[in-house]
Amino acid sequence: MKKRVILILCVLAVLLTAVICLPFARKIDTTVTATEYRFNDPAYAVEHTVVIHGHDTRNLLGYGVFEGTFAVSGFESGQEGWSFRVSFSKKSLGTAFSRRPSGEPCTRDLFHLRADRDWSDFAGLIMEVSDKAGHTSTGTFDPDTGRFLVSGPADREAAVAKAAALFRKDPYWYGVFQGQPD
Predict the structure, then answer these.
(1) Which among 67, 125, 148, 179 counts the fewest CB atoms within 10 Å?
(2) d(C-alpha 159, C-alpha 147), whole Å
């Protein structure tokens, strides 16, 4: 009898681990309004339309990838033919990479992004990119003066709170958003 109970508990533990750790794919096909803000200018707010198409493959712990398009109106990476990949792992909480229509990978516009499972809520950091000779570019981000993009209409207080909640697993960026004026 004890062996049967132990066997059942082991089987349940394996099944529970599989449910928690195996990724589940979700098709994402949505268009939302998002607003761009500056860390150093509480009055700055620019609304964008964001079209998101792709597959989010994350497990119940939130680790996995999104692959598809994340087209922000007015952003270079929002043009036709660009693709987008975001990795959600312990080492890279929301590291985003774009791929030009030519297939060349690059980091452009958004470089760090957090999103909920259905992509109705997201927050991203916007890189300042300088193009160089020979089709190369350099990107920088200054947390004192940088820009960020948050889903939803213009409401800085709500946007900062949403961004802080989405970045809560990343202590550095969580702290940056917690220190923002409302």
Answers:
(1) 179
(2) 12
